[in-house]
Design goal:
The chain is of the alpha/beta class. Helix content is about 65%, strand content about 10%. It is found in: Cell membrane.
Length: about 600
C-alpha cells in the first residue's frame, strides 16, 4: 500500500471522484440484491398465494431498480473514467517534466524502450486501477459479504453446503492467474521484441540494403514472429485447460444448491422462493471467486507499475540548482571560462580527464584535438555542467558554475553536436528552437551565416519544409548547417562546436568558419575537431591524450613541436602541403567578409607552409 500512499499527491486532489465512483458501484451492487428478494416475493407471496394483482406493481419496482442501477453504473463509469484519466494526466505531465530535468548521468544508463513503456503501459495500468480496479476490488469484497450474509440469513445449512466447492474454485482461479500471467508477460515481451525488430529494421533500412542483408532480416523477423506465435499458443493452452475446470467447479455449487435445495423444498424446510433467491445469489459469490486471481494480479501489477513510475519521479537529480543559485544575466556575462585542475571520472570508471586546466579569455577560440576517447567531449560536457565536477572547478567569469542557476547558465551556451539531431518539424522551427521570440529576418541571417540559406531556399517549401524523423531527407552536411544556424540564432556568449563541420566538405567548412569568425566576435568558442584545418585559427589548441593535456599552444607553435599535433598534421597534410596552402587562399579569396583575424592566421600559415 506504500506505493499508493506515495502516489496520493496525484489522485488525492480528485478524491471526490474517487469516493463517488466507489459509492456508485457499491450502491449498484447493493441494489442488485433487490432482485433475489423480488424473486422470492414473486414466488412465495404472489404466485403461491395467487395475488396476481401485485404483478404490475412488482414489475414497476423492477423497472425502477433496473433504472437506478443503470444510472449508478453510468455514474460509476463516468466518475471512474474521469478519475483515471485525470490521474494519468497529472502523472504523465509530472513524468515528462521530470524526464526533462533528469541529469545526463541518468540518461547514460536509461533505456529508451523501458522509459517509453513506463510512460505508456505502466501509466495505463495505474489509470485503469485508480479509475476502476480499486472500486472493483472493493466491490468484489462487498459482493461476497452481501451475497453470503443473505444466503446464510435464508438458510445457513444450504449456504454452507453450496460453499463446499468455493475454496477449490478460488484455488484454481488463483492458480490459473499464476500461470496465465507469466504467459501473458512472455507474449508482451515477445511482441515488444518483434516491434523493436521492425522499428530497427525500418530505421536502419539503408544499412540493411547496402549490406544486402534483406534475407537475414527476414529470417531474424521470422524467428521472432515464430516465438510470438508459440507464446500465444501456449497462453491459449493454459486458458483452454483451466477454464473448463473453473466452469465445472462453479457449476458444481449450482448443482449442489439445486439438488440439496430442491430436496429441502420438497421437505418444506425452505420455500421455493427462497431457493430461487439463493440460486440468483450464488452468482454473487461465484463471480468474485472466479475473478479472485485476476483482481489479486491486477493489484500486484499496478503496484509494480506504480513503483516503476515513482522510481522516475523520485529519481535523484545529480545536477541541480543550489538554494542560493545566482541567475546569470546575459548582459553581464563576459565569457571567461576557466577550468582549474579538473579531474573527472564517469561513474564506476577510470578518470576521463586528469588535472585539466584552461583559461579561455572572453571572445577567444579554444581548439580541442585528440584521438577518440581522449576526453574532448568530456571537457564540453563539464563546461555545460552536464555532470558536477567534484575534483577541481569550472568557472564562468570567476564564479564556480555550480553556484549559478542552471537554466540561465546553459542559456549562455549554444552547442552544435557531432551527431545532429533535428526534430520532426519545419526547418524554421528547428532553427528557432533555442529562442522563444525570434523574427524571420533573424532566422534567415543565422541560416545565411551557417551557409544553409541557399539550399533551404531551393526546397519547394523553403523554411516551411518539414524534415522527417531525425532530419531524414536531408544530407548530413545540410543537417549540420541547420544545427549551426540553430546555435547561432541563440546569440550565445559561449559557442561550442563539437566536430560540427565533420559532415560538410572542406570548402563549405571554410565558408562556415568564415561565417563563424563573424559571429564568433565577442563569444568564447570551443571547437572540437579532427581536422587541423578547423582548428588552426584557434587562440589556443589543447591536445588531449587519454584524458591528459599533452600539448597546448597556437597552431604554428604546435607545428614546431614533436608530438601528436604535428603527427596529425603530417597525416592530414603531408602528401598535399600545397593543396592545403591553396585551400586557405581559395577560401580567403571567396569570402570577402573573412575577418582580419582569420586572414592573419591564414597568411601566417601560408608563410609557414612556404618554408
Ligand atoms: N557518458 C559516459 N559514461 C561513461 N563513460 C563515458 C561517457 N562518455 C564518455 N565516456 C568515456 O570517457 C572517455 C572520454 O570520452 P570522450 O567522449 O570525452 O572522448 P572524445 O575525445 O570526445 O572522443 P570522440 O572523439 O570519439 O568523440 C572515454 O573512455 C569514454 O569511454
Amino acid at each position: 500500500m506504500d506505493v499508493f500512499r506515495r502516489l496520493k499527491p496525484y489522485f488525492w486532489p480528485e478524491k471526490k471522484l474517487f469516493f463517488l465512483a466507489i459509492l456508485c458501484l457499491a450502491s449498484a451492487t447493493a441494489l442488485g440484491l433487490v432482485y433475489p428478494n423480488l424473486l422470492r416475493y414473486l414466488i412465495d407471496d404472489v404466485i403461491a398465494k395467487k395475488q396476481f394483482e401485485l404483478v404490475p406493481r412488482l414489475a414497476i419496482v423492477v423497472v425502477i431498480v433496473v433504472s437506478v442501477k443503470g444510472l449508478l453504473q453510468f455514474l460509476h463509469g463516468l466518475c471512474g473514467g474521469r478519475l483515471g484519466n485525470r490521474v494519468a494526466y497529472h502523472l504523465r505531465n509530472a513524468l515528462y517534466n521530470k524526464l526533462q530535468y533528469l541529469s545526463f548521468q541518468y540518461y547514460d544508463q536509461a533505456r529508451t524502450g523501458d522509459l517509453m513503456s513506463r510512460l505508456t503501459a505502466d501509466l495505463e495500468a495505474i489509470r485503469q486501477f485508480i479509475g476502476f480496479g480499486f472500486a472493483q476490488l472493493l466491490n468484489v469484497l462487498l459482493m461476497l459479504i452481501f451475497g453470503m450474509s443473505m444466503m446464510f440469513s435464508i438458510n445457513w445449512k444450504l449456504a454452507l453446503l453450496t460453499m463446499i466447492s468455493m475454496p477449490f474454485l478460488a484455488f484454481t482461479a488463483i492458480r490459473f492467474e499464476g500461470k496465465i500471467h507469466p504467459a501473458f508477460r512472455m507474449v508482451r515481451q515477445s511482441l515488444s521484441s518483434m516491434t523493436t525488430a521492425v522499428q530497427e529494421n525500418i530505421t536502419g533500412v539503408r544499412t540493411v540494403k547496402s549490406f544486402a542483408r534483406e534475407a537475414h532480416e527476414v529470417d531474424k523477423f521470422s524467428a521472432r514472429n515464430e516465438d510470438y506465435k508459440a507464446m500465444n499458443i501456449e497462453s491459449s493452452g493454459i486458458w483452454a485447460r483451466y477454464f473448463p475446470i473453473m466452469e465445472i467447479l462453479a457449476n458444481l455449487s449450482v448443482v449442489m444448491l439445486l439438488g440439496v435445495g430442491g430436496y429441502m423444498v420438497i421437505q418444506n424446510t425452505i420455500s421455493l422462493g427462497e431457493l430461487v433467491a439463493c440460486f440468483s445469489l450464488i452468482w454473487y459469490i461465484i463471480g468474485p471467486m472466479w475473478g479472485l486471481g485476476f483482481h489479486i494480479n491486477n493489484f500486484t501489477n499496478t503496484k509494480a507499475s506504480g513503483e516503476k513510475i515513482l522510481d522516475i519521479l523520485h529519481q535523484y537529480l545529480h545536477v541541480k540548482d543550489q538554494a542560493d543559485a545566482t541567475i546569470v544575466k546575459s548582459s553581464e556575462v563576459q565569457g571567461n571560462i576557466r577550468f582549474d585542475n579538473v579531474t573527472f571520472a564517469y561513474p564506476e570508471k577510470q578518470p576521463a580527464l586528469y588535472d585539466f586546466s584552461l583559461d579561455a579569455k572572453p571572445g577567444s577560440v579554444i581548439g580541442l584535438l585528440g584521438s577518440t576517447g581522449s576526453g574532448k567531449t568530456t571537457v564540453i560536457s563539464l563546461l555545460m555542467r552536464a555532470y558536477n565536477v567534484k575534483d577541481g572547478r569550472v568557472m564562468l567569469d570567476g564564479k564556480d558554475i555550480r553556484s549559478l542557476e542552471l537554466e540561465s547558465y546553459r542559456n549562455q551556451i549554444a552547442t552544435v553536436f557531432q551527431e545532429t539531431f533535428l526534430f520532426s518539424s519545419t526547418i524554421l522551427n528547428n532553427i528557432a528552437y533555442g529562442r522563444k521570440d525570434v523574427t524571420m529576418d533573424e532566422i534567415i541571417r543565422a541560416a545565411k551565416l551557417a551557409k544553409a540559406h541557399d539550399f533551404i531556399s531551393e526546397l519547394p517549401e523553403g523554411y516551411d519544409t518539414v524534415v522527417g524523423e531525425r532530419g531524414l531527407g536531408l544530407s548530413g552536411g545540410q543537417k549540420q548547417r541547420i544545427a549551426i544556424a540553430r546555435a547561432l540564432i541563440k546569440d550565445p556568449k559561449i559557442l561550442v562546436l563539437d566536430d560540427a563541420t565533420s559532415a560538410v566538405d572542406m570548402e563549405t567548412e571554410h565558408e562556415i568558419q568564415a561565417g563563424f569568425s563573424e559571429v564568433m566576435q565577442g563569444r568564447t568558442t570551443f571547437i572540437i575537431a579532427h581536422r587541423i584545418s578547423s582548428l588552426k585559427h584557434a587562440d589556443e589548441i589543447i591536445v588531449l591524450d587519454k584524458g591528459r593535456i599533452v600539448q597546448r599552444g597556437k597552431h604554428h607553435e604546435l607545428l614546431h613541436q614533436d608530438g601528436l599535433y604535428r603527427q596529425t598534421y603530417d597525416i592530414q597534410y603531408a602528401d598535399q602541403p600545397k593543396k592545403a596552402d591553396q585551400d586557405d587562399q581559395v577560401a580567403a579569396a571567396k569570402d570577402p567578409e573573412l575577418d582580419a583575424k582569420t586572414r592573419n592566421h591564414s597568411s601566417l600559415q601560408e608563410r609557414r607552409l612556404a618554408h
